[in-house]
Amino acid sequence: MLRLSLLLLLCALLGIAQPSHAELDNNLLDRLTDVSRSAVRVQAWSEMKTLSDDEKRDLALGLIAKLASQDHFVRQNSLQALGMMNLVDDNIINALYKATRDADPGVSRAASVALAVLGQPGEIVIKALASELEPGKQPEDLKRYRAAADLKLIAMSPRHISIKEAIPALMAALSGDPAPIVRSQAAATLGFAAAKEALPTLEAAAKDNDTNVRHLSEWAIAQIQKSKN
User: Fold this and answer.
1) In terms of C-beta density within 10 A (0-12 exposed, 13-18 middle, 19 or more buried), how is residue 165 classed?
2) Residue pLDDT, tens place only, 40-76
3) Distance between CA atoms of 47 and 135, rounded to whole angstroms?
4) Are 169 and 131 contacting, i.e. CB atoms less than 8 angstroms apart?
5) How far is CA 2 from CA 8, 15, 119, 176, 223, in A?
6) Are 196 and 156 in contact (CB under 8 A)?
7) pTM of the model as a whole
8) Smallest Cα–Cα separation from 18: which of 64, 60, 52, 47?
9) Please, how many CA atoms are within 13 Å of residue 227, restricted to the half-sphere of its CB?
10) Poorest-confidence range of 8-22, 136-150, 205-219?
């Protein structure tokens, strides 16, 4: 941050046009699409939110270009970033809709979630994700986990999108899913959604035999109580 401030001051003293955030941090695009470190991507999302709308549009062009990558994880991460950019722009929306037809199911799903994060049209996606939380419909633990994680992304949207249609399914997953990774993700999502009706379920889950489920349930309870004040 100090180095950035000194650079901007030097530009001002010399009468040089100040570079944009995207020019100052030309590896932001790579960090947004990093395929091995989720913490790096989350940090990059935070940095992305500080950009102006024009800078976001420039960055979006780079992310849209990444949708041509042969690596389906790069495409998925590009779509996540486009959703978390919180910018409803024709180029972005068109790219997201096009990506919903991607041959890779993970990529097409990421596009649908990104559209929901931007409120375009979220209810359909939210209901579909909620249905995937049912062990009877989705026997694979990892896929139920991803459904809960995708709902969490939508609940985290800066547009404050309601996921109320999914709250009953998340509560059921927290109280009865056999996989701890699904229960823990459900707890976190209920916290981000500030689901007051889930407090009794979360209080019971705070006694779960899995450490992560207990901790995330306690965190979610604190988040919900904070939102009530």
Assistant:
1) middle
2) 998 999 899 899 999 999 999 999 999 999 999 999 9
3) 37
4) yes
5) 10, 20, 37, 50, 33
6) no
7) 0.68
8) 52
9) 16
10) 8-22
